[in-house]
Design brief:
Layout lengths: L2 E7 L6 H17 L8 E6 L6 H11 L3 E6 L5 H13 L4 E4 L10 H10 L4 E6 L7 H16 L8 E8 H7 L9 H8 L3 E6 L13 H15 L2 H30 L6 H34 L6 E5 L1
Parallel strand pairs: 1-2, 1-4, 2-3, 5-7
Antiparallel strand pairs: 3-8, 4-6, 5-6
Length: about 300
């Protein structure tokens, strides 16, 4: 079988040569053991890096045919860079495995993924076996992310990022999803082919900085929820009904107090109510606006990525 490893890269000059060395060692071993074909490749996808990432990819390609590259015309984000690599590798391979460029994904999980593929799995999800190496904050926020996504009705594999094997058949089906608002962790499970899980211990980043700080993680979660679930809109409706019921009781209370002739100051209560309802309205408008914005982006049908250069 022909295997392509798809590695999205953004400003990874500090770690790229180490990553290439580790992946070459693994691929050479798999070829030697006749688990994969000599035509298998490692595809680096440069997502508009501002450092020397592409120069290093070109250098690796010139030195060894194992390495190939795809350069996007600009920075489109991790999900689009990954999709560009998968679609570029689709027609050249029997299966692809996507991994991060920072060596946090254990390269040895490839063996388990290939084994599952040979046993009939079209998709194999790389899932972290634990989060012991994470800080308390990172571990807590990550768990909240997955639980929130599941609570919102998004079909997502717990503790799975974007380390996964996909067969040629699965990639062809993925190509049929035309969303501009891309969230692959939610899209891939929708394909529905036979799948399995390969557990691995995620390591520490070898060099460089994380490309997913808290701000980006929050934006990523928001994209995932609003791309795959309408539960936030239903929550707005539920809150509106609850507030309506409460307001009826308050109105009845005010009328009774008026009839009995009691004087009620009520300034504090009125002020709090106005601010609370006003804030709730702004949040509701914001959520609705998020959905309208996504509809706007989808209707324009702009290309999700543009490939500037390919090294084959």
């Amino acid at each position: 079988m022909i295997l392509y490893l798809v590695i999205p890269c953004y400003n990874e000059e500090e770690v790229l040569k180490q990553t290439a060395s580790a992946l070459k060692k693994k691929m050479t071993s798999l070829i030697k053991d006749k688990k994969i074909s000599k035509k298998s490749r490692v595809m680096f996808v440069d997502d508009g890096s501002k450092d020397k990432t592409w120069e290093i990819i070109a250098e690796l390609h010139a030195q060894d045919e194992l390495f190939v590259g795809v350069k996007l015309s600009g920075n489109r984000g991790h999900q689009f860079a990954l999709l560009a690599g998968l679609m570029s590798a689709k027609d050249c391979s029997d299966a692809t495995i996507s991994m991060d460029a920072d060596l946090q994904d254990d390269v040895n999980v490839i063996d388990k993924m290939l084994e599952d593929y040979q046993n009939g799995s079209e998709i194999v999800y790389g899932v972290r076996s634990s989060r012991r190496k994470d800080t308390f904050f990172k571990r807590t926020t990550a768990q909240m992310f997955y639980k929130l996504m599941q609570a919102m009705g998004v079909n997502i594999v717990y503790n799975h990022a974007d380390c996964r094997l996909m067969s040629k058949r699965a990639l062809k089906e993925l190509e049929n999803f035309k969303e501009v608002n891309l969230f692959l962790r939610g899209l891939v499970p929708l394909i529905g082919f036979k799948s399995s899980i390969a557990y691995y211990e995620r390591g520490k980043r070898v060099a460089g900085e994380s490309k997913y700080p808290l701000k980006k993680m929050l934006a990523f979660a928001a994209d995932g929820i609003t791309s795959f679930s309408i539960k936030p809109l239903r929550l707005i409706l539920s809150l509106g009904i609850i507030i309506l019921v409460i307001s009826i009781f308050i109105m009845l209370y005010a009328l009774i107090v008026k009839i009995l002739g009691h004087t009620v100051a009520g300034w504090t209560f009125l002020t709090i109510s106005i601010w609370f309802i006003g804030g709730l309205q702004m949040i509701s408008i914001g959520i609705i606006g998020e959905y309208i914005g996504k509809i706007y982006n989808e209707t324009k049908r702009r290309p999700r990525y543009i490939i500037e250069t390919e090294l084959k």
